[in-house]
Write a structure and sequence with these properties.
Blueprint lengths: L13 E2 L4 E7 L7 E7 L6 E3 L6 H13 L9 E3 L5 H4 L2 H8 L2 E5 H12 L2 H15 L3 H7 L12 E3 L12 E5 L8 E5 L4 E5 L22 H13 L5 E4 L8 H26 L3 E2 H7 L11 H20 L3 E3 L7 E4 L2
Parallel strand pairs: 4-5, 5-6, 6-7, 10-11
Antiparallel strand pairs: 1-2, 2-3, 3-4, 8-9, 9-10, 12-14, 13-14
Helix pairs in contact: 5-6, 7-8, 8-10, 9-10
Length: 339
């Protein structure tokens, strides 16, 4: 029987065994509801896997949740962040202020944090607007979709690479680099218990956002990276998964295979969509014709922007595989099947 995602109101700090506790931290105003922050016990103090969104309500939930399982946030040794997104990295800086903890993240996401912190709000909005226009969005849509960005996360003190052990005395917590959702996304293999902290990489009921930004980049292929990362995780075996959202589940490998199959089917449907169109489509037009969890017209502006990023990632993979091509027309980039 498959579990279900429980609302935040039903979540409680929990001892999940093996010297690991989960603490649900809310994401105000977000349908995901909460991030599951994990505290891993060690003789030198606990290390957190992720930290949650930077918001007063979230901070109280983290602090009080740790206290409920017998931990003082001031004794936290470190925070290892699975990726730079604000629902994972947001409170890491606050924890560091309270405890002097180190913050660790994969080097590829550390580079992105530095970039984000160096770009002001005006430049960020200009970047978004230009990206949307090149994707084929209209002037009104550009104005509607362009959004304020969340507060940049704290700059980590330490970088992690694939295979590195996290500073967790008396235990073995190994970095597994799984790019796709972000360039520096990592899972963490707790080798002394046979468990895998999966971040957003492998979730039990949903799949993470895989996007290209700017939408028309030709130097990256994040969906292929993600598919390769899923195969890498599946190769670790049937580990118990401790994800950042939803619920803990068994057999990471089986779920990774399911998610790979989902995206391969999505790629086939996208190729068929382009064939049926009979003419080259912009990224924005393609996204508008794809199937989402609700009709395109009903998606909030921010979600339309994310849907376009997801469409772009799938188009990019089909382009790399030689299934589709970019046309040489002036104006927004367009895609068509190879003749």
């Amino acid at each position: 029987m498959r579990s279900r995602r429980r609302p935040y109101s039903e979540q409680r700090p929990t001892d999940v065994g093996g010297g690991v506790w989960s603490v649900p931290v809310p994401i105000p105003g977000n349908p995901l509801g909460y991030t599951l922050v994990y505290a891993v016990e060690s003789p030198a103090g606990p290390v957190l896997v992720d930290a949650g969104w930077n918001h007063p309500e979230a901070w109280l939930a983290l602090r009080d949740g740790l206290a409920a399982v017998g931990m003082d946030v001031r004794e936290v040794r470190g925070v290892v962040v699975t990726h730079f997104h604000p629902d994972h990295a947001g409170l890491a800086g606050r924890v560091r202020e309270e405890s002097g903890a180190w913050i660790a993240m994969h080097e590829a996401d550390v580079a992105l944090v530095k970039l984000i912190r160096d770009v002001d709000e005006g430049a960020h909005r200009a970047f978004q607007a230009d990206m949307l226009r090149r994707a084929g969005a209209t002037g009104g849509e550009v104005a509607e979709v362009t959004a304020e960005r969340p507060q940049p996360p704290a700059l980590p003190d330490r970088t992690l690479g694939d295979g590195d052990l996290v500073d967790l005395p008396g235990r073995a917590l190994r970095t597994v680099w799984t790019p796709g959702h972000t360039p520096g996304h990592i899972c963490l293999h707790l080798e002394d218990t046979g468990r895998l902290f999966t971040g957003d990489h492998v979730l039990p009921g949903i799949t993470p956002h895989i996007g290209v930004y700017p939408y028309d980049r030709t130097d990256v292929d994040p969906l292929s990276d993600f598919l390769d990362s899923l195969a890498k995780v599946a190769g670790l075996g049937s580990l118990e998964a401790l994800p950042a959202h939803e619920w803990i589940f068994q057999d990471t490998a089986a779920r990774a295979v399911e998610i790979r199959t989902h995206h391969e089917e999505k790629l086939l449907r996208l190729a068929a969509l382009l064939a049926e169109a009979g003419e080259p489509l912009t990224i924005w037009e393609t996204a508008g014709r794809m199937t989402w969890n609700r009709p395109w017209e009903e998606l909030p502006a921010m979600l339309r922007g994310m849907a376009a990023g997801e469409a772009a990632a799938h188009l990019r993979t089909l382009e790399v595989r030689g299934v589709i091509r970019r046309t040489a027309e002036v104006g927004p980039v367009r895609y068509a099947l190879h003749s």
